[in-house]
Design a protein that fits this description.
about 150 residues; 3 helices; 7 strands; about 30% strand; alpha+beta; globular; histidine kinase; binds magnesium ion; binds adenosine-5'-triphosphate; 5-stranded mixed β-sheet
Length: about 150
């Protein structure tokens, strides 16, 4: 069923901001005020919540997280950008495996399931997910969801 992707994304960001430290900031960037598409609301909410939760929990309070929403003729493109701990290069290939957690997470808790679920949900939408990461510099996840 058609939903407003901009509005949904904005409300997920607001939900995350409420759940994190007051000194941490999540910036939402979109050129469009509204964009209606046939995407599953629950799937998209789960995908964005997991990626934003990771971006904030693997960053410090003063390191801003950004979510950029873009559209082209065929796709909705989300970029979740953080300047946090990053993922060691040799471990990056394991990231979407269930229960996998990188060696640099320290005391930050988690089950290692979030990204495995995200990957499944993106596959259901026939989309794609990719990331670029450098340890101690940050990570950018790119999610592409085809518009149907
Ligand atoms: P949860 O199941 O509660 O989400 P989790 O966050 O540990 O637990 P995933 O979301 O699947 O599990 O992420 C897997 C691992 O990938 C994390 O433990 C962490 O090592 C790494 N990771 C994911 N996102 C980031 C990020 N934005 N920055 C740095 N490391 C990340
Ligand atoms: Mg997670």
């Amino acid at each position: 069923q058609p939903i407003d992707v901009v509005r949904l994304t904005k409300s997920v960001v607001e939900g995350i901001v409420e759940s994190i430290s007051q000194s941490q900031n999540v910036l939402f960037l979109s050129r469009k005020e509204s964009f209606v598409a046939n995407v599953d609301e629950f799937l998209l909410t789960t995908i964005l919540t997991n990626l934003l939760s990771n971006a904030t929990k693997y960053s410090k309070d003063n390191e801003e997280v950004r979510l950029k929403l873009e559209f082209d003729n065929k796709n909705i493109v989300f970029k979740i950008i953080d300047k946090g701990i990053g993922i060691p290069e040799v471990e990056q290939k394991n990231l979407f495996k269930s229960f996998y957690r990188a060696s640099n997470v320290g005391k930050v808790s988690g089950t290692g399931l979030g990204l495995a679920i995200v990957k499944d949900f993106i596959d259901i939408h026939k989309g794609s997910i990719d990331f670029i990461s450098r340890e101690d510099e940050g990570t950018t996840f790119t999610v592409i969801i085809p518009i149907i």
